[in-house]
Specification:
Elements lengths: L7 E3 L12 H9 L2 E4 L2 H10 L5 E4 L5 H13 L4 E3 L13 H10 L3 E3 L5 H6 L10 E5 L4 H10 L5 E5 L4 H11 L4 E6 L7 E6 H7 L8 E5 L5 H15 L4 H12 L3 H10 L1
Parallel strand pairs: 1-4, 1-5, 2-3, 2-4, 6-7
Antiparallel strand pairs: 7-10, 8-9, 8-10
Length: about 270
């Protein structure tokens, strides 16, 4: 079956298991004039496995801008280019947006091949009550930003990436805002030691208390009453500053027009 030819191809690569690549992706990588990749050493291992002899050119977040002119010059000369990331689908928390924006401006044809992506692989094996979710990429590093993110998206399933070095600390911060939150966490997707766990946040933290290895995808399940999580965080914050339960009730009632007696009862229970 003949395939339409494009100037620029966005090609997903395996997220772990080297066999998770499509026949079309292999064919495309063999036929283009060169492959733009994050780390030529990583991509070369994949190419060697499938006997792909196409030349690699480095393209990462630190040289995106300077590579644009080179790509445009090569495309104007009739060359065809494929973009890959180290793992998964390019432009999902990986470089690519800069060159794609320029190619659209210049009128070059672009296509994206379907393939491996940690987000969809993760979501296809964890239970959800509905199809709604928000993907925020890598969750912010600072405690304040994590808290703001959790509060902002409390009412919707929130999916994010995190490093194994930071994930337990991040979960502890999330727990400070959503003490009873349900979490789904996956590590090493498609690899030998793949593990997916769905449980309350305290149990997940305890499960990995001795450490965790591998690439992480995580989801905070939506709070059925997100306003309660925000109120509990406000109460906890004021109490940590030394305010008494009655003072907390008065302050939050005055600031946010909430029922003082309900706040007082909730504060007593915390």
């Amino acid at each position: 079956m003949s395939q339409r030819k494009f100037d620029f191809y966005i090609v997903p690569t395996p997220i772990g298991n080297i066999q998770d690549i499509t026949l079309r992706a292999i064919e495309t990588l063999k036929e283009v004039d060169f492959i733009a990749c994050e780390d030529t050493r990583v991509t070369q291992k994949l190419l060697n496995h499938y006997d792909i002899r196409t030349k690699c050119v480095s393209y990462h977040k630190y040289n995106e801008r300077e590579r644009v002119d080179f790509f445009l010059r090569e495309l104007r000369a009739g060359k065809r280019i494929a973009l890959v990331s180290d793992a998964g689908t390019p432009m999902i928390c990986d470089p690519g947006a800069v060159i794609v924006e320029e190619l659209i401006k210049e009128g070059f044809s672009i296509t994206a091949l379907p393939g491996a992506c940690a987000v969809t692989t993760f979501l296809s094996q964890v239970p959800r009550n509905n199809e709604e979710f928000v993907f925020i990429g890598f969750i912010p590093r600072s405690e304040k930003q994590i808290i703001e993110t959790v509060q902002t998206y409390a009412g919707i399933n929130t999916v994010f990436y995190e490093s194994p070095e930071r994930i337990l600390k991040t979960l502890e911060v999330i727990k400070s805002v959503r003490a009873n939150a349900k979490i789904a966490l996956a590590r090493e997707l498609s690899k030998l030691f793949e593990e997916v766990i769905c449980d309350d946040i305290s149990s997940v933290i305890e499960h990995f208390q001795d450490g965790i290895k591998g690439e992480i995808v995580c989801m905070i399940y939506a709070d059925e009453k997100p306003e309660n999580a925000d109120l509990e965080y406000k109460i906890k914050t004021l109490k940590s500053k030394g305010f008494k339960d009655k003072e907390v009730a008065v302050i939050l009632s005055a600031l946010f027009g909430l029922n003082k007696n309900e706040i007082y009862k909730k504060s007593l229970d915390m």
